[in-house]
Structure formats: C-alpha cells, structure tokens
Amino acid sequence: ALRRRLPVLRWLPRYSLPWLQLDLMAGLTVGLTGVPQALAYAEVAGLPLQYGLYSSFMGCFVYCFLGTAKDVTLGPTAIMSLLVSSYAFHEPVYAILLAFLSGCIQLAMGLLHLGFLLDFISCPVIKGFTSAASITISFNQVKNILGLQGIPRQFFLQVYETLRRIGETRAGDAVLGLACLAVLAGLRAMKSRLPRAAREEPLAARLGYLIVWTSATARNALVVLFAGLVAYSFQVMGSQPLTLTGSIPQGLPAFRLPQFSMAAPNGTIPFRSMVEDMGVGLAVVPLMGLLETVAIAKAFASQNDYRIDPNQELLALGFANVLGSFVSSYPITGSFGRTAVNAQSGVCTPAGGLVTGALVLLSLAYLTSLFYYIPKAALAAVIISAVVPMFDAGIFRTLWRVKRLDLVPLCVTFLLCFWEVQYGIVAGVLVSGILLLYSIARPPIKVLEGDVLLVQLGSSLHFPAMECLRDAVCSHALAASPPRSVVLDCCHISSIDYTVVVGLAELRQELRKHGLSLAFCSLQDPVLEVLLSADLEGFQHFPSREEAERFGGAEPGGDGTVPFTSASESSLLP
Hints:
Layout: H1 2-5, H2 8-11, H3 17-45, H4 50-54, H5 58-66, E1 74-75, H6 78-87, H7 92-111, H8 123-140, H9 142-146, H10 155-164, H11 171-193, H12 203-217, H13 219-237, E2 262-264, E3 267-269, H14 271-278, H15 281-303, H16 310-325, E4 333-334, H17 336-344, H18 352-367, H19 376-387, H20 394-402, H21 407-416, H22 421-441, E5 445-449, E6 453-457, H23 466-479, E7 486-489, H24 498-513, E8 518-521, H25 525-534, E9 541-542, H26 545-553
Parallel strand pairs: 6-7, 7-8, 8-9
Antiparallel strand pairs: 1-4, 2-3, 5-6
Helix pairs in contact: 3-6, 3-13, 3-17, 3-18, 3-19, 5-16, 5-18, 6-15, 7-15, 7-16, 8-19, 8-21, 8-22, 11-12, 11-13, 11-19, 15-16, 21-22, 23-24
C-alpha cells in the first residue's frame, strides 16, 4: 500500500548513475523550455508574470514523489491559463484560492475513486474546446505582436478593437514578433524532420545533431534570449522601439496559506462571495486539469511501454495544486509540450522534475532582473507557437466521415467557447449527454418472425427504453396475422432495474389480454436473479434460442416445425 501511494519507492532503490545523467539532461532541457513559457502563460492568465514562475516548480517536486508516469511534467499550460483568466478575474488572490480549492476537489475525487466522471467528457467536446482555445489564445496575443494597448479581453470585442486600431501598430514590436514566430516555426519544422544520428557515424556528425536538436528543443529560451539582447541593445543606445515586460519582483514566494478573503475598495470580499464568483469554474478547472493530466500520462505510458495508476495521478495533481497554492501558484496541470520534450530527452524517472523545478527556483532567485528586457512581442510569439498546433482542422472532416452526429457537440462547444469558455464546455457536455441518453432510450431492436415473434435488443435494456420496447412489441405482435406470442432474447442485457421489471410485467399483462404470452431466453445470471426475485406471474424463460423455437412450435396454431426466420427485420427507431 505504501509503494502504491508513494510511487517514488518503486524506482528509487534501483536508481543508477546512467539514470541520473539522463534525468539531469532532460530536466535542464525542460527547464529551458518551461521558464519562458511560464512567463508567457501568466500573460494569458491575466496575472503578473512572476506568477507563471511561482506556478512552475511545486508541481515538479510533488510529482517526483507521487506521480506514476516518468515523462509527465506539471505546470502552467495554455488551456489552464485561459480558464484561470475566465474565473480568477485577473486577481492573484482569486487565482491562488482557485488552485487550493481545485486541488482539494481533485484530492477528494482521487480518494473517492471518482475519476470515471472524466469519461463523460467526450472527444468531440475536448477537440472543440482545445481548437477554440487555440484561436482565442492566439488572437489574444496579436495585440502584443502589434504593440497595441488597451485591447479588451472579450474575444469578439478584441477582434473588433484590434482591426479598428491596426493603424496604431508599433513597427518595432511587429517586426520582432513576426521574426520570432518565423524562427520558432522554422526550428519546430527542423526538429520534426531531423534524422537521428547513428552511433557508427563520425563524432562531428553526432555533435552536429546534438547542437541542432538542443537548439530546436530549447527554441523558446533561445528566441526569448535573442529578443532580450535586441531590446537591451536599443536601451543602451537610448531609444526603445519595443514594448518590454518590465520589472518582475526578485526572490522566492513566501510559503503561506492562500487568502480566504480579499480587500476591496468598498470593503472585504468574504470567502463565500469569492466561491460564488468563481461559480462553475470550481467544477471546470479541476475536471479539465485532471482530464489533461491523465490523458497525457496514458498517451506517454502507452508510447513508452509502462503502466500508470490513473487514481494516483488524481492524487498527485491534487497535492500539487494544494501545496502550490501555498507558494502563490495558480492551477496547474500536465503539459503536453513539456512532457514531449521530457520524453524525447531520454528521461528515466520522475526525478528529472527536480532539476526542472530547481532551475525555475534559480531563475526566481537570480534572473528576474534580466526578465525586464524581454519584449512582450517575443513572449506573444512563444504563446502563439505553443497553441497553434492545438487547432485540429482535420477533426471536422474526420467526424463528417465517421459519424456526423458527433459534429453537434463539437460545433456547439467550439462556437460557444468564443463567447465564454464555461458555456462552451457545459453546453458541449450537455449535448453529448443528451445524445448518449437518446441512444439508451432508443436502442436498436430486431424482430424475427416465426410461430412467435423473437425480439432482440441490440444493446442493454435501461428504464428509459422500456416504453419504446413495449410500444414496439405490442404493435408487431398484434399486427401479425394471426397475433403471435413474443420471446424476448436477452443475450445483450447484463442488468435491469425495478422500472424495467415493472414495465415487463405491464407488457406481459397487455399481451395476456389478447391471449398472447411473453417469454424470455438467453438470460444472464444477474438478470435472471432479478426477475425471479420479482416473482412475475407466469414467468417463462429458456436457456437458449433453440429452446425458445420449440416453445414457438408448441403454441396454438403452430405446427412445431417452422423455425424463426428473418422475414421481418426492423430497427424500430421512431
């Protein structure tokens, strides 16, 4: 039990020097990627930039001890930053409290084994949300690329104001921002097409591969460093055509409880009011955080051939958010981009996260004065480069080809997320739920005609489908000439509830009024036990379809020789 709750005990006794070397390399590489991303994602969240760094180290430390996937790295992400922007109202106190409450909810879900709730968020809803988020976040950064000030955050107003004021574009910001975007895109493409150097190749070739791979992997850090040097050069020359990040407080955040109230100009906002203000965010933020983390962990565990414990992942993320709130972190989750960098760097254990976290702490302690010269256009380019791949244009074509009905939750989520993120997610889940309930309430039904009607459900039988089944059976049994008794093939039914039992009893009584009977065949043990316990009057069941055929032949009017045939076959959907 201790090894299950503390996964570090599984790999720590076997830790070796080769593992240490690879973990150090991977941790440093992820850190070089994560530090500039942390600054950029704080901008997306609408918080001072230091809060991105405050959110980037505690998750690394906690996951090292509690996580079950060697590749996963926790920290701020584009999706979570967008959600924080919607629910924290650009107030650090709200963002930190949201991290604490989200962590508590995630811990409770882990302890109560409620991770199955994530299964109700369908793939079309996730794709619709991430695609809309990609567009929203990218356009939110256009103002920084163009050097525009005072642009509202609401998406449609943002588009209108940006287009209206495009003539106010600062040339320096635009040139630098577009140049950074081009460099980032080029390095990304270079990395994806880079052939791996074989061991037997000359040292120069392997060294060249390492240099190019490192440059492409740490492209965010290189671009931000280059842009900072350009801005510093202009500052030294006495002219500054770029919009700079500005001062960032130096030093580590204090370790303290999050604030449960907030001072406001007209008084104090109590804890209850803060919770009411965050509203549905207290469900959306922890659920989306869990979904992102578990999905990433499963993907990389499958890719690298190891197993994870999804429930332990919930606990690890919950602890990371709770403890993170003690160091002024906003909600964090698994990062797909940094996790991919971690895996490609050859990480062997979650200990690589310790190196990443240490690098963030060093940046906070000693490098924040240098962040003053980072141009906002460069950070905007980093964000846009990170979120553009999240837009999946092919999903629309795929769903049109595979199942067009799934386009409904996809499009509902996608379109409403431009209005408000929470409306898009909630509406998408509701539409997916309605489609799921409809398929349960209207299962496919097959009717085989013989001396009796054999009725077979194509899926399990739940109480919403009972009325549909009763109407279909009665209409077919009474429409036959002469009217025929019914055998219900239950091979696909694994469980039933009381409402179904009552419905079956009423169906039997209705058939009996017309001199017909209802029997069952191929009952699974749990269903048979329920029906026997219900003590239905005149209950008949047969172990197999063949036994039911003999029952059909013995019916009045039957000659006992005609087997069931598929003379009539219908889905019976209304």
